Structures are given as structure tokens and as C-alpha cells.
């Protein structure tokens, strides 16, 4: 039979097939990978080290307060608080490097670190920031001030028997030794031993130290013109027996004209081998007459 009722099942089947195909097309792909779950960033561990140590370098006095490490597994910053003091008579700034060293690694400050110039007789505060990686062992670290060829100030973050501070603090010794060479009477009063030259804002090489003697010199003569007292009038005998003259830099000896019976305050600086301990003799001459004033640095 060829009536309309015989064609309806075919149309219905076609519509069903289209719906089924559409459903299959819109169905999610069960083989697609699931979205990754984001893990939280690790929380940095904050550790504060109380340094409270003062060191001397290149004419400046640096006092380190606290060091704060903010570290995760990848590393992070170590921030060091420091106050720079300038006891000199002209503006000065730190003339050598400052590093954070641990074992065989050494880290320079970040570019954002600013160590300001310090006015004469003044102070300036700063924060020195070091960026370390995860392999840097901060508890064994020390702040090192100075070049490898110079005396270096060392401030361990954790002090102990194997990590002691090196402050380079000048050694001051009061003495009272006197004598007379010809018409020149001398009384030695003070000895200073240090690793830097404050008047030059410089640190000395690691194998030498500056030894400065302060003394009174008086001319016991009636000659009205007085007498010149120069580097040719003084020498220093070292513990090894060698005799040396003053450091010739234009700053290391007070050139004076000795007037009759007037006491002159004079200082003379010598360069001696480190560590500087031992028995010395300050030799003063007036023509062929000499006097030797002995003193000991423990």
C-alpha cells in the first residue's frame, strides 16, 4: 500500500538518528586529562641573628645590629642592619667590599643596597641585603669587610669556638718611659697599634700594621733659634732587631720646631710586621747622641 501512513516510520527513524548523533557529538571526551591542582607556595622561614658587633675598617667604625634571613627552599634575602660612624675630620665612605660568606660561597650585596657617605664626626644607618640560594648555609655564614689582600673584619652570624669575630679594634697602650739624647728630652706616653690608616681612609695589607707613638719632646738648650725635630731624629727597633724609620706619607710624623724649654706634643707612625706583638725600642737622636726607650706590646 502506498498511503501516507506507510512513510511515517521512516521519518521517525531518521529523526531519532539525528538526535542520537547530536547527543554523541556533545558528550564530553572521557579521555581528556584532568586539570592540575595548584599547590600553595611554601611559607618562608624568618630567622633573626643578633650580631651586636663593632668592627674597624678603613677609618670607619661599623656596628652590626641584627641580620634577618627570610628563606624558603629556593633561598631568599638576608638583611643586615649596620650603623657606620666616621670619627675623622672629613666625609668618608666604606672603601672596601662587604660580603656574606659561608663555606666556599660568597655573596655580594644586591644592587638596591646603598651604603652612604658618612659626614665627619657623624653616623649613617643602612641595611645591607644579600640574596642567597637554597644551597647557601646561612647559619655558618659570616659578614666579611675588606679585600682578600687586606686585614678583614669578620662578623659570624652565629659566634662560637670555630667562628669568632675579628673586629680589628685598635690596641691602645699607655706607657711612661723617658730619657734624653743630647739636648732633647723625650717622654713616651702612648702607643697605638691598628690595621688601618684613618687619615687616608685605607686598610693596610694583611701582613703589616700601623704603630703610632705619642710623646713629649723638649729642647733643653738656651739657643734662641731652637732646633728642628724631623723624621731624621727618630727610629724604631723591631722585636727582630731591625731598625726602621717612620712611614713616609706626609702624615706620619709631626714636624716641629723645638723651642728652648717648651714641651712639644709629637706623634710618629711606623709600619711594623703583623701581628705586632713583642719588645720594641723607640730611638731618638740629637746629632751623635741617642736614647732608646723600650716598651712591650703583649
What share of residues is helical? under 10%
Physical arrangement of strands within the biggest beta sheet: 1-2-3-6
The coarse overall form would be: elongated
CATH class of the largest domain: Mainly Beta
- Overall mean pLDDT stands at 90
> Tally of extended strands?
20
Question: What percentage of the residues does DSSP assign to strands (E)?
Answer: over 45%
Low-confidence stretches: 1-25
The total number of structural domains is 2
Task: Report the oligomer.
Answer: single chain
What is the CATH architecture annotation of the largest domain?
A: Sandwich
Q: Give the radius of gyration.
A: 38 Å
- State the secondary-structure class: mainly beta
Gap from first CA to last CA = 133 Å
Overview of this protein structure:
By secondary structure, the protein is mainly beta. Helix content is 6%, strand content 48%. It folds into 2 domains: 45-156, Immunoglobulin-like (Sandwich), CATH 2.60.40; 171-297, Immunoglobulin-like. The longest helix is centred in the first third of the chain and has 19 residues, at 8-26. The termini are far apart. Mean pLDDT is 90; it is low at 1-25.
Amino acid at each position: 500500500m502506498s498511503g501516507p501512513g506507510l512513510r511515517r516510520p521512516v521519518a521517525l527513524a531518521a529523526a531519532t538518528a539525528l538526535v542520537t548523533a547530536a547527543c554523541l557529538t556533545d558528550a564530553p571526551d572521557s579521555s581528556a586529562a584532568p586539570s592540575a591542582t595548584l599547590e600553595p607556595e611554601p611559607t618562608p622561614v624568618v630567622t633573626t641573628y643578633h650580631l651586636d658587633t663593632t668592627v674597624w675598617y678603613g677609618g670607619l667604625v661599623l656596628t652590626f645590629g641584627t641580620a634577618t634571613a627570610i628563606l624558603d627552599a629556593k633561598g631568599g634575602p638576608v638583611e643586615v642592619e649596620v650603623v657606620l660612624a666616621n670619627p675623622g675630620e672629613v666625609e668618608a665612605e666604606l672603601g672596601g667590599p662587604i660580603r656574606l660568606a659561608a663555606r666556599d660561597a660568597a655573596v655580594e650585596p644586591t644592587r638596591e643596597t646603598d651604603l652612604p657617605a658618612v659626614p665627619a664626626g657623624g653616623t649613617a644607618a643602612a641595611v645591607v641585603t644579600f640574596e642567597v640560594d637554597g644551597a647557601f648555609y646561612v647559619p655558618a655564614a659570616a659578614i666579611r669587610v675588606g679585600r682578600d689582600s687586606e686585614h678583614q673584619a669578620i662578623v659570624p652570624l652565629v659566634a662560637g669556638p670555630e667562628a669568632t669575630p675579628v673586629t680589628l679594634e685598635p690596641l691602645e697602650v699607655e706607657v711612661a718611659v723617658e730619657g734624653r739624647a743630647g739636648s732633647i728630652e723625650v717622654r713616651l706616653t702612648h702607643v697605638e697599634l691598628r690595621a688601618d690608616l684613618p687619615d687616608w681612609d685605607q686598610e693596610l695589607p694583611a701582613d703589616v700594621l700601623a704603630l703610632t707613638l705619642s710623646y713629649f719632646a723638649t729642647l733643653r738648650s738656651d739657643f734662641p733659634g731652637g732646633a728642628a725635630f724631623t723624621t731624621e731624629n727618630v727610629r724604631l727597633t723591631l722585636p727582630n732587631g731591625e731598625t726602621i724609620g717612620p712611614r713616609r706619607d706626609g702624615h706620619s710624623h709631626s714636624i716641629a720646631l723645638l723651642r728652648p724649654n717648651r714641651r712639644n706634643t709629637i706623634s710618629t707612625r711606623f709600619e711594623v710586621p703583623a701581628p705586632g706583638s713583642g719588645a720594641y725600642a723607640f730611638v731618638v737622636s740629637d746629632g751623635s747622641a741617642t736614647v732608646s726607650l723600650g716598651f712591650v706590646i703583649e
